[in-house]
Design goal:
The chain is an all-beta fold. It has no helices and 13 strands. The protein has a 5-stranded mixed β-sheet with strand order 2-8-7-4-5, with no helix packed on it. A 5-stranded mixed β-sheet has the order 9-13-12-10-11, with no helix packed on it. A hairpin with a 5-residue loop joins strand 4 and strand 5. The relative contact order is 0.16.
Length: 191
Amino acid sequence: SQLSAVVNVFALPQAGFTLSEDTLFWPENSVEIETLFDNENCLYTLGNGMELGDCNATIAYNGPGEYEITQMVTNTDLCEANNSELLVILPSIFVPNIITPNNDGDDSGVFSNGLNEGWYLKGIEYLDKVGVSIFDRWGGLVYENASYSNDNPFKGYNLNGDKLKDGVYFYVIESSRIEQLTGSLTILRTR
């Protein structure tokens, strides 16, 4: 006697999508999702507790953070496939244009009476390694830190530890996640 059976093999669906951007700066908060394959059923988990059932859509987020977006596709035979992408929404970077390192204010990074003892760069904690260079008005490098942190901010001293004179200086801020930032910084110790 001979036994035979029919085996049905179903094709797996293909999951894949693109994001219009993978890094945004708050308050920019929306991103377009476009599926790469013709799927009948798409479900996205958006990394913020929400789900979306459209294969192509524009989504908006409520704040800075890292959001893992996962696409789950199911074909008519109930076979599933998944794909994930990471969306990073960074806070806006605030770079003060003046410091007053004269020991008359709060040194916690919070503005005190409108004065700031150190150069605290709001938002850099979300960036990868941050490099800061400060130059005098003649283009001479007076300060450099390849791993800048608000835990040890610039307080108006040069590379040798000497106080810099009151005046206007120029900065360059670099990180792999942002375009180079440049501008002026005034040091004002006296009122």
